[in-house]
Amino acid sequence: MTLPDAISDIANQSMPKHVAIIMDGNGRWAQQRGKIRVAGHKAGVVSVRQVVSIASRMGINALTLFAFSSENWRRPETEVSALMELFMFVLAREVRKLHDSNIRLRVVGDIHGFSERLQKKIREAEALTGSNTGMTLNIAANYGGRWDIVQATQNIAVKLANGSLRPEQIDEALLAEHLSMADIPDVDLLIRTGGDHRISNFLLWQIAYAELYFTPVLWPDFGEEQFLDAIASFVSRERRFGCTGDQIKNWLISSVKHS
């Protein structure tokens, strides 16, 4: 086996199936440029578009983006309102492109906290892309990892109360079946931009065995090259067999260009 073939084999075996990203740094990016925080969120949409595109082309099965946490309601009302309008705009503008790319869109979280108008847009977007067979794009909105575990526990408690479930049947697998992404494999790689080294109540159950990748790059500056750096780091940690991280990254770049 030649060296390029060996690198290809290593990368293909070790590619993450599910990547999750905490998209942090939009506000700081805007403030560094003397702009209002919402400008950073708008700039971050470009990064979302780039990362979704390259992840899909690389054959990643699921990509989960942390767009709005359950704690983000504490932010200034003007910023929250602007974020909701941006969410509406992006859904309306991007969902057709996702559909044409065979990407399935799902919004994960307690969407009942949103306006009826936004809930309707979410349902329409999920319905349009629901039969697609390519990458699943999960947008975590009004989501918290503790909320996810609590709502799963509540659903199990209902079954205990009505007698359709016995206490001894409860195990890790059963609880996992009641989480909001029960049909998606656990996260292989968690990326956080913006320099902080925190999980921030994101996918607490699903990242139990994930590799963690922290970068100081602010989200609006995070694009295809930075995403490839994260994937190359993951592959190198998993099964490098004497190859360097740069060799893995160069192979990834080459494979994406030819896909």
Overall, the morphology is globular
User: How many H/I helices?
Assistant: 9
- Spatial order of strands in the largest sheet: 3-4-2-1-5-6
Q: Assign a percent range to the helix content.
A: 40-55%
For the sheet with most strands, the description reads: 6 strands, parallel
Rg on CA atoms, Å: 19 Å
Which structural class do you get from the secondary structure elements?
A: alpha/beta
Number of DSSP strand runs = 6
Question: Strand-and-helix sequence, N→C?
Answer: HEHHEHEHEHHEEHH
What tags apply to this protein structure?
globular, 50% helix, 6-stranded parallel sheet, 6 strands, single chain, 9 helices, 259 residues, alpha/beta
How is the secondary structure organized here?
Layout lengths: L2 H12 L3 E5 L3 H7 L4 H21 L4 E8 L7 H24 L3 E5 L7 H14 L6 E8 L1 H17 L10 H6 L11 E4 L18 E4 L9 H16 L5 H13 L2
Helix pairs in contact: 1-8, 1-9, 2-3, 3-4, 4-5, 8-9
Tell me about this structure.
By secondary structure, the protein is α/β, with parallel strands linked by helices. The protein is 50% helix and 13% strand. The chain has a six-stranded parallel beta sheet with strand order 3-4-2-1-5-6, sandwiched between helices. Helix 1 (3-14) packs across helix 9 and helix 8 (224-239) crosses helix 9. The model has no long low-confidence stretch (mean pLDDT 89).
What's the quick description here?
The chain is α/β, with parallel strands linked by helices and 259 residues long.
